[in-house]
């Protein structure tokens, strides 16, 4: 399993596209470049970054151990159409996958992703490897419980509230 959490208001020192060109695949850079609204572009960049971080953590590699440019995060629709975020796809009808450029032996169906918005302030991405027994299925069943915890002060389950919103991935 790989998990990454990023602040939605995270600032990027150098322009989004220059940063993306350094770390993202050509397809992801093209996707971001096509977004004309700078705030939407920044949010999509952070979502992609969060998903990529969760994936390399699931692989057991660090940031430098799995070059981000060697794979693309894609949002796949029901009709088999694929690429980074078709605008008309809703989370219930989409899945997130990985396309590799340098290692075709890594098949995208081995992984499943979940992208969440937490309390309106953070994105969380979870990447898990599917079990062999569920290989033909779209998703491996997962039960996720989200807690807001302030050590020694508060533990509150926030799953099922408006504070946890599924953006894409398995339910």
UniProtKB/TrEMBL annotation:
<protein>
    <recommendedName>
        <fullName>holo-[acyl-carrier-protein] synthase</fullName>
        <ecNumber>2.7.8.7</ecNumber>
    </recommendedName>
</protein>
<dbReference type="GO" id="GO:0005829">
    <property type="term" value="C:cytosol"/>
</dbReference>
<feature type="domain" description="4'-phosphopantetheinyl transferase">
    <location>
        <begin position="1"/>
        <end position="82"/>
    </location>
</feature>
<dbReference type="GO" id="GO:0008897">
    <property type="term" value="F:holo-[acyl-carrier-protein] synthase activity"/>
</dbReference>
<dbReference type="Pfam" id="PF01648">
    <property type="entry name" value="ACPS"/>
</dbReference>
<keyword id="KW-0808">Transferase</keyword>
<dbReference type="GO" id="GO:0019878">
    <property type="term" value="P:lysine biosynthetic process via aminoadipic acid"/>
</dbReference>
<dbReference type="GO" id="GO:0000287">
    <property type="term" value="F:magnesium ion binding"/>
</dbReference>
<dbReference type="InterPro" id="IPR037143">
    <property type="entry name" value="4-PPantetheinyl_Trfase_dom_sf"/>
</dbReference>
<dbReference type="InterPro" id="IPR050559">
    <property type="entry name" value="P-Pant_transferase_sf"/>
</dbReference>
<dbReference type="InterPro" id="IPR008278">
    <property type="entry name" value="4-PPantetheinyl_Trfase_dom"/>
</dbReference>
